[in-house]
Amino acid sequence: MNNRGGIVYRDGYSPERFLEGLKTVDYAIFDLDGTIYPGLFLFDLAKYTFGRDHEKADKLMRLGFIAKKYKEGKFTEAYKGFVALLKDEDPSTLINYSGRLIGGSYKYAKLTINRLGRDYSIRSLLISITADFIGDVARKRFGFDDVMAVKYRTTMSDGRLKFTGKTWERIDSPQAMKKRMLNRLFGSEGGNFRYVHFFDSIDDSIVASEAAIRVAVNPNIETYKATGPDIILRGKGDPWKGIYELVK
């Protein structure tokens, strides 16, 4: 690996090769959590929402237990628990709060996405296991051409729209869920597509494995070994600044 201009390149790769490669792809696929937003958006949103209402202190406590299960690697159990936690919550409130939190995303990620579209005619897509209403907020914030996220069920009750505590999607492994989303995006094109993938975790390994260019954002060792990124963006502040300056 070699570091040039604040970007780490794998051996045999270079800024010039990356820029030439961008001319050969039609799509840029992005992950949300940890990639363009510095954290786990759903948990931050729930903490923000429940923390503002003392009557929901029990939900805030349950959120802590769910977060513990997530850190222990019990993804399916944690995700289903989180969805159930939103039962009877007002979608409009969470959408409003999502609009506030999305402003905490990496500034240079948005600027980079803009340049990929403007200067390389690359369509930007989001594949994320976050909620669909968050995906819609991210679409507006970053200008994504399409978004694949988990569809949360809603129902009318007492004259109000509420979450049911269930999803339309099957909740299993994050890799399998993202693979199905990828297939929905490109299935009609018969697999005849090339894309650059921006990601941060091992959850993205299946999508990364089919990418023409792999760009990891602050990956850990496990993610690095599983995905073999061509480029690594690192930084405690905004890791996207270097690549934004590269593509301008």
Describe the structure.
- The chain has helices spanning 15-22, 41-51, 57-71, 75-85, 91-101, 107-120, 132-142, 174-186, 205-209, 221-227, 241-247; strands at 2-4, 7-9, 27-30, 123-131, 146-150, 152-157, 160-167, 195-199, 213-217, 231-233.
- It has 248 residues and is an alpha/beta fold.
- It has an 8-stranded mixed sheet with strand order 1-2-10-9-8-3-4-5, sandwiched between helices. A two-stranded antiparallel ribbon has the order 6-7.
- Helix 2 (41-51) packs antiparallel against helix 3, helix 5 packs parallel to helix 7 and helix 6 (107-120) runs parallel beside helix 11 (241-247).
How many strand units?
Answer: 10
Going by helix content, strand content and strand pairing, the class is alpha/beta
Query: How many helix segments?
Result: 11
Which overall shape is indicated by the principal axes computed on the Cα atoms? elongated
What helical percentage do the residues reach? 40-55%
The average pLDDT is 94
Radius of gyration: 18 Å
Which segments are poorly predicted (pLDDT under 50) over 5 or more consecutive residues? none
Query: How would you write the strand order of the largest sheet?
Result: 1-2-10-9-8-3-4-5
Series of H and E elements: EEHEHHHHHEHEEEHEHEHEH
How large is the share of residues in beta strands? 15-25%
Distance between the termini: 23 Å
Largest sheet: 8 strands, mixed
